[in-house]
Structure formats: C-alpha cells, structure tokens
Amino acid sequence: MMRAARLLAAVLPLLGLGALWVQSDRTYHTGTEWEVPIVGYDPRDYLRGHYVEFSYDWPGYDESGSSGPLGQLCLEGKAPHLETVGVATRGQVCPHPVRLDATGIYRMNGLLSGRLYIGQKRAEALQQQLQNRDQRGIVTIRQREDGSFTPISIRFRPLTPQEIAERDAPAGAAPLSPFDPLAPPAVMDK
To answer: Where are the domains of the chain?
Structure first.
C-alpha cells in the first residue's frame, strides 16, 4: 500500500506537468495567422538572447490621432492578408480582435511593439536581412478568438517603388498620394 502511494506521488505531478504542456501547446497552435508589416527592427546581441524587437506598422492606424493607450484593434481583411485595422470600441462586434496584454513585456505598448524569439542559426541570417534598408519586414502573428496574439515568424520582401520614395522623401514633406491638391492643374487635350 505504501509503495503504491509513493508511486502515485511521483507520477501524479508528472501527469499534471504533461497536461499543462499539452494545454499550452494547443493554445499556441490555435488561431488565425495574419501578416503584419513592421518597422524599427532591433537585432539584439547574443548576450541578451536571440530575439528581434520591432514596432508594428498596422495598416490604417494613425498613432498620432490616438488619445491614451491603445486597448484593442479590429483586424480587417482575409487572413493572412491584413488590409486595415480599426480601433475597437466597447459594444462593437469585431470578428478578428487583437487586444492589449497589459501584463506582457511591453505593458501599455503591447499593440505597438513586439518581440520574436529566434534560434541561433536563424539569427545569423536574419542579422544581414535586418540591415538591408531595401527590404520590408513582415511578421506573422497568430490571433486567437479571445484577442490574444503571438508573433510566430518573420520574413522580408523588397520595398515597392512607392515605399522607397516615401522612405527617401525629405523630412516634413507631404506623404505621396495619387491626388495632390497643391499640384499644378493637369493639362487637358481637346
């Protein structure tokens, strides 16, 4: 009897840890994947870990027009292609919410900044890509029904000609637009 109790005392915690691992793994692998553009990469040295810090460049979100901390965004588009985001308000029905985790590493900036952990082999290749100014970083996030999300991968694509022109525009210049109200009138032929 005593032997069975000791065996049970040793096996029961292992079963509990296994159940927690299965639940954590299932949570990590469930959700909808979205591709989000990023800016402001910060490759960290090996002494502080293998991760990349970045700022999300949510399409359609203007940080300068916000008042107070950002609490929740509503993703719009057909996954994985993110078309735009909107600031979610109370009572608004949002099929793809992304909410702030105020207990996370970035606290109140959790929807503006992110961190992706990477392996050592990938870190060496990624360091070269992060230093190339002619590429755009895209982070794939996994968004879950409760609004939580996790960055899961990063890739790069070449900048479009418009993105290069906007990047190289003089500071304080108006953003490029197909219609410029201050431009000279178009010449029309009869």
So the answer is: 30-162
